[in-house]
Amino acid sequence: MRDVAIVAFAQTAHRRRTDELSEVDLLMPVLHEVLGATGLKANEIGFTCSGSADYLAGRAFSFTMALDGVGAHPPISESHVEMDGAWALYEAWVKVMTGEADTALVYSYGKSSPGEVRDVLTRQLDPYYLAPLWPDSVSLAALQAQALIDAGDTDEAALASIAARSRTDATTNPYAQLTGDVPAGDHLVHPLRTGDCPPIGDGAAAVVLAAGDTARALCARPAWIRGIDHRIEAHSLGVRDLTDSPSTRLAAQQAGAFERPVDTAELHAPFTSQEVVLRKALGLGGDTRINPSGGALAANPIMAAGLIRLGEAAARIHRGESDRALAHATSGPCLQQNLVAVLEGESAHA
Predict the structure, then answer these.
(1) What is the pLDDT of residues 287-304, one digit of tens each?
(2) CA 317 to CA 220: how far, in whole Å?
């Protein structure tokens, strides 16, 4: 078992539309920035892994085109997951952990603006019972929010305060799409108002992983991945308790999150109600800073937002603003799949 760390992180400034940019145009500046931060060249990277969704692009194997952003030469060891980039990071972590590579480049991207995201995401649903009904992602999140309200776990005022806090925190994030005093708005799907839901936008992100002394040589204060795990709920929403997330709790337990408190948590909660579920599942109290970047309520590039949570947590460790951070990523309706990682700075490990 080797120590593996996130040694660099870069992301785009997230925007509502990037009609003038292809996926390659979106990615190339981020890839150049993250490699430049380490001084590595493309031919010095041991493994490359990406995360994206062909459904967003509307064409099969669209990720192969994005490889142009990495470079066609020299040949590379490469893989892809049809998931958020957080799961690409998990695959890369396994490669580095097992000694098959000393460094890894992980990137992900999503252009949500060309289509109707609420309709596209119905393709994640059970194809026999749910998908033919076309329940969209916001309506399903509203069912979860109403279940939380009915259970007495939250109310609309509490949800509004989560949205307000997230957008206020995002004012210090130069990459955020929405910042500051954003009105709660009308009900989009009751009980969720516009402010309770994530913005639709385009963006990309990338991180570099490295092992042991290589990580120390590339970064003044590496963000060591002390534990990482991902779990999944039942596919059918009808057999789940939407007010809880056992898969998040189990992933956190396996990642070592409950061994001692974390000072920061970057939670991938696209809807305010999902932060309520995650905080309960992770046992997070008032001493933990939640989503200092603004979280997915400030910028939610689909297929990159989870990787950004890992990158934001790592960046705070790089800057010395955090010693022990938790990062969470999700995929699927109502927190169906969940990944949890625990990151620590060098001093916390000593």
Answers:
(1) 999 999 999 999 999 999
(2) 10
Where helices occur in the chain by DSSP H, the ranges are 23-38, 54-57, 63-66, 85-97, 117-120, 137-150, 156-169, 212-218, 246-255, 272-282, 305-318, 346-349
Nearest in space to 205 (alpha carbons), one of 336, 84, 101: 84
* C-beta neighbour count of 114 within 10 angstroms: 14
Answer positive or negative: Cα dihedral of 48, 49, 55, 60: positive
- Cα angle 210-339-232, degrees, rounded to a multiple of 5: 140
Q: How many CB atoms lie within 10 A of CB 257?
A: 27
The pTM of this model reads 0.95
Q: Which residues, given as ranges, of the chain have pLDDT below 70? A: 72, 347-350
pLDDT at site 350: 45
Question: Using CA atoms in the order 263, 266, 267, 270, what is the torsion angle rounded to 10 degrees?
Answer: 140
Residue 133 DSSP SS3: helix
d(CA 105, CA 89): 8
**Is-contact 214 102, C-beta < 8 A?**
yes
| CA of residue 219 relative to chain centroid, distance | 22
Location of structure tokens 């954003």: 182
| Count of CB atoms situated within 10 Å of the CB of 119 | 11
Per DSSP, the three-state class of 99 is coil
CB contact at 8 A, 96 and 102: yes
Beta pairing, strands 264-266 & 289-290: parallel
Inter-residue contact 313 to 323 (CB < 8 Å): no
- Separation between Cα atoms, residue 301 and residue 348, nearest integer Å: 32
